Amino acid sequence: MFISPAFAAGNGSPAGFDLMGFLPMIVIFVLFWFLMVRPQQKRMKETQKMLSEIQKGDEVVTQGGIVGRVVKASEQYLTLEIANNVEINVQRAAVNGKLEKGTMKSL
């Protein structure tokens, strides 16, 4: 006999490689990509865009919950006025979001 009976009885795939065995892992990877990775990348792009558009006069909230108006903006840091004559310096990356104008007055 030139061919072993076990290999002759198989489906002819070399060394037991079976595409159908990898199909569930491929499906899980695709689902993981579309449900986890892709939305996170989209959210990160939106955050970077928002941070780059912050300018003097905008009202922002930091990750620590501090609400203030931008008095001075540089590439890395922002100076926020959080009360009359009270200013703090924060990193641009510490800003969590922009607020609508007039939000500070309503607080």
Topology:
Layout: H1 5-9, H2 19-52, E1 59-62, E2 67-73, E3 77-83, E4 86-91, E5 95-99, H3 103-106
Antiparallel strand pairs: 1-2, 1-5, 2-3, 3-4
Keywords: Cell membrane, Membrane, Protein transport, Translocation, Transmembrane, Transmembrane helix, Transport
Protein name: Sec translocon accessory complex subunit YajC
Transmembrane segments: 20-37
Highlighted features:
single chain; 107 residues; alpha+beta; SH3 type barrels; 2 domains; five-stranded antiparallel sheet; 5 strands; 40% helix
Q: Report the sheet-strand fraction.
A: 25-35%
- Rg of Cα set: 28 Å
Main sheet: strands, sense, barrel: 5 strands, antiparallel
In which range does the helix fraction lie?
40-55%
Known CATH architecture of the largest domain: Roll
Structure description:
With 107 residues, this protein is of the alpha+beta class. The protein has two domains: 5-50; 55-106, SH3 type barrels. The chain is 40% helix and 27% strand. It contains three helices and five strands; from the N terminus they run ααβββββα. It has helices at 5-9, 19-52, 103-106; strands spanning 59-62, 67-73, 77-83, 86-91, 95-99. Strands 4-3-2-1-5 form a five-stranded antiparallel beta sheet, with helices on one face. The chain is rod-shaped, with a radius of gyration of 28 Å. The model has no long low-confidence stretch (mean pLDDT 87).
